[in-house]
Specification:
It is a single chain. A hairpin with a 4-residue loop joins β10 and β11. It is built from 19 helices and 15 strands. α8 runs antiparallel to α14 and α9 runs antiparallel to α13. It is elongated, with a radius of gyration of 42 Å. The chain is α/β, with parallel strands linked by helices. Helix content is about 55%, strand content about 15%.
């Protein structure tokens, strides 16, 4: 099977009708499409996948799922997929058309014709929000199916199964993440893919249907009590699964948010680095911010310690040592008594002087003038003032506590209640608190100085926004962790409920009426399961051989006798029971397991690439392969091995989407003999055009 051509019309960067011939020749199985980042390579791949699977595109690859999540949902993703120029010209629809030839199908005859080639077309109208899928005979143009479900099933059964699509359309760098999966998760993915490629999924689906049918037959014989318990487990499983789906949606939303936040942080970093006076200033600021955070935490801890030491002592005591506070209060009271006494005396003297000079009676025939009178009046006031100051014993205090008698009494009682040990604790805590306050003040002053040395306040604003974004990033990471923990708990609950469900079923005696049906159903299940297992076991040796063979060709550590003895020497494929999937184990020459965790990023990509190739070799028909970012994580040695030994015999049709940094003009020479066609994506800022050729040496 080959994808002979594609027509992209008004989809994203592709304006108008863009036709690309994807045909390959014998011994020239590679079509190389070059393009700079942002010129449409990923959207070319998306157009292919969308044409085949429509809304189910998110199930093919995590990258496609993220593209939809960027636009919040599938409908919005579709709206945003109409080319901008086409939108401005009042066009409302876009479409993708694939011509597929060399099909190896069961005999499909329409109008007495055998179908060997088809045209699949999917279009979308952003005004009506209508999506249409058609599958036609390549030569007659006749529609093969009327029902949409039949079209979907045909693509899944006879073109590329959905579960296998991730191995047909993939980002070579991102797919290496499969090596990070747990053994169980990896085995499940590989098992599903192998089942689809071998055509075993039909039998596995039938096994599932028969198992459900036999369970229903058994349930008919259950008592009401047992029936209620079974129903409870079934409902609980459904609810848990719904909750898991909701968690997955929440996680997906958070991942989308994380992507956006990380992008913003990069923008902040870029702006700050470009506009600040130097990295040293930024480094200093960050270190002082860390110091400030630590001091604030210590300050908070000390304040908490105060509260624990005594809830009776008011804040005034916390600003000084206990003896000093007590003495200060005593001196303050003494001063106040003197002030009150002096005020009383001054008041009486002033009254006396006022009455002496200004109140009748006055001397008869007095010759004292008003001037003389004022002279003796002022002299009397001055003498009284001097007399008061001489007798004053007030102590100068820097400050005074503004406390009422009740508060003073509370302080004195608290002081009396504190023993020597408590007093020392207060003193030490207070000393530490004062030290922290001084250090905080110095740090804040330093930060102000650093900020003043920056270009302007706008940079400071960006720094603050970056700090907020980083806090938000941390919070969302924690939320994802919580969701994952809840999901794992729900999975364990489902596992427990399934066990209880099957345990309850085993207690039920099948009715006489259903016994024959039940026995026959279980026999069919047993036969089918044996067939599926035997088919997978039959492929076990073939998979082991092919995986090891590919690893030896591609991993440079295996290309020397000495190196290879210390690295991977054997591969084991285990078919796990009860549909547990597959387990791939790597061994060194001493039969010790080589953990996949020790593989480098490039080696993990090589490992997954070998798995893909080994699985594809088991396919009943040759599948076309489309690869984006083909060499992202690889070093020069591994790149050369991939170009020379991997792509040339991966499939009869391999379409590679590459930048000039991955497959350079120099590296192009390594695969040139196997290249059937080359194209270069060019973008003028409005649209992407496709022209023959590849990047030229500069």
């Amino acid at each position: 099977m080959k994808f002979s051509s594609i027509n992209i019309e008004n989809f994203r960067q592709y304006y108008g009708n863009v036709f690309i011939d994807l045909g390959t020749e014998q011994n020239k199985n590679i079509v190389l499409i070059g393009g700079r980042n942002g010129y449409g390579k990923t959207n070319f791949l998306i157009s292919l996948v969308w044409c085949l699977y429509g809304e189910k595109i998110s199930q093919v690859d995590e990258n496609f799922k993220k593209e939809i999540q960027k636009e919040k949902n599938y409908s919005q993703f579709m709206k945003q997929s109409l080319n901008w120029t086409a939108t401005n010209e009042n066009n409302s629809s876009f479409s993708i058309q694939l011509k597929i030839t060399d099909l190896e199908l069961p005999e499909i005859k329409l109008f007495n014709k055998t179908i060997t080639g088809i045209v699949i077309k999917r279009d979308f109208n952003v005004q009506t929000m209508q999506e249409n899928l058609s599958i036609k005979d390549e030569f007659s143009g006749d529609e093969l199916f009327e029902d949409n479900e039949d079209k979907i099933n045909f693509i899944n059964d006879y073109i590329i199964p959905l579960d296998a699509a991730k191995f047909v359309f993939f980002d070579a760098e991102k797919i290496a993440a499969m090596a990070e999966l747990s053994t169980k998760e990896e085995g499940s993915v590989l098992n599903d893919a192998l089942g689809k490629i071998l055509g075993l999924d039909i039998y596995e689906d039938l096994i599932g249907d028969l198992d459900l049918y036999s369970n229903n037959l058994r349930k008919e014989g259950a008592t009401k009590n047992i029936q209620d318990q079974i129903n409870d487990r079934e409902n609980a499983i459904k609810i848990n699964q719904i909750n898991i789906d909701k968690i997955d949606e929440n996680i997906a939303e958070l991942i989308k948010d994380l992507t956006n936040i990380k992008f913003r942080i990069k923008e902040y970093d870029s702006f700050i680095n470009q506009n600040s006076k130097g990295n040293a200033v930024q480094f200093d600021r960050e270190s002082f911010l860390i110091r400030k955070e630590l001091l604030q935490q210590k300050e908070s801890d000390l304040e908490h310690a105060f509260n624990e030491l005594s809830e009776l002592i008011p804040l005034a005591i916390l600003t000084g040592k206990l003896e000093e506070v007590s003495e200060h209060l005593l001196l303050q009271d003494q001063n106040q008594m003197l002030i009150n006494s002096s005020s009383e005396i001054i008041g009486k003297i002033d009254t006396f002087i006022e009455r002496l000079f200004n109140q009748a009676p006055e001397p008869v025939n007095s010759s004292m003038t008003l001037r003389d009178k004022m002279f003796y009046y002022e002299k009397a006031q001055n003498l009284s003032s001097e007399l008061f100051e001489e007798k004053s014993e007030q102590v100068d205090l820097e400050f005074e506590h503004d406390l009422n008698n009740s508060e003073k009494s509370l302080i004195n009682n608290a002081i009396n209640a504190v023993n020597i040990q408590s007093k020392e604790m207060f003193e030490n805590t207070m000393d530490n608190y004062n030290t922290i306050k001084i250090e905080l003040k110095e740090v804040n002053q330093t930060l102000s100085k650093i900020d003043s040395d920056l270009v302007d306040d706008y940079i400071i604003e960006k720094m603050i926004e970056k700090e907020k974004a980083e806090r938000s990033l941390s919070e969302k990471d924690q939320n994802i962790g919580s969701y994952i923990a809840n999901k794992e708990k729900l999975k364990k609950d489902i596992s427990r409920l399934n066990q209880e469900y099957h345990s309850l079923l085993q207690k039920v005696e099948v009715t006489q009426l259903n016994k024959t049906k039940f026995q026959k159903t279980r026999e069919y299940i047993s036969v089918l399961q044996s067939f599926v297992d035997s088919q997978k076991r039959a492929k076990k040796e073939s998979l082991e051989k092919n995986i090891l063979s590919e690893l030896k060709k591609l991993l440079h550590k295996l290309q020397g006798e000495v190196e290879s003895s210390k690295f991977i020497s054997d591969v084991s494929v285990s078919i796990l029971p009860d549909n547990g999937g597959m387990k791939i184990t790597l061994f060194d020459s001493n039969d010790n397991e080589v953990k996949k965790e020790i593989l480098g990023a490039g080696e993990k990509q090589i490992y997954i690439s070998c798995l893909i190739k080994a699985i594809l070799k088991e396919s009943v028909q040759s599948l076309p392969i489309f690869i984006d970012t083909p060499l992202g994580r690889l070093d020069d040695e591994h790149i050369k091995n991939i170009l020379l030994y991997y792509y040339p015999d991966l499939s009869e049709q391999v379409v590679i989407l590459s930048t000039n940094n991955e497959i350079t003009p120099r590296r192009f020479k390594d695969i040139e003999l196997n290249v059937s066609k080359t194209y270069l994506l060019e973008n003028d800022g409005i649209r992407t055009n496709v022209k023959p050729g590849y990047f030229k040496s500069v």
